[in-house]
Amino acid sequence: MDGAMYREILANNLLPSVRALKMGRDWVFQHDNDPKHTARATKEWLRKKHLKVLEWPSQSPDLNPIENIWRELKVRIAQRQPRNLKDLEKVCMEEWAKIPAAVCANLVKTYRKLYAQLAEGQQDRQDTSCVSSQTRVNAYALTTLSG
């Protein structure tokens, strides 16, 4: 995937989802430092759409709950062993639909606690040694924004 495809995905999925969920403007978009996310054209596209983007320091720990969902989806897909691209697409859609909303809600709840702990500096030294001060600021901002 390149930057152009990423921006197309955002245009076709993110913006309609925000409208459908009636999120208004009081939310912050999060993505990591993948080159397609940080490309000048992507930053410009986000700016033109007036989207607030969470600053994400390089080499920071992954504090995005969606990564756990992707891992769950990968495990489910691997167990089904799709044989070709068409089968893979079908299996992806089926397994995605099977992941209960409660799993997502529980992940968000768990991450809120982690963000709060990071913001307060309550993680033990081993865990926070790789957490930058910017990440702690972001964690605090996320707990504030997410209620």
UniProtKB/TrEMBL annotation:
Residues 26-88 form the Tc1-like transposase DDE domain. InterPro entries: RNaseH_sf, Tc1-like_DDE_dom. Coiled coil: none annotated. GO terms for molecular function: nucleic acid binding. Gene3D superfamilies: Ribonuclease H-like superfamily/Ribonuclease H. This is Tc1-like transposase DDE domain-containing protein. It comes from Coregonus suidteri. The lineage of its organism: Eukaryota, Metazoa, Chordata, Craniata, Vertebrata.
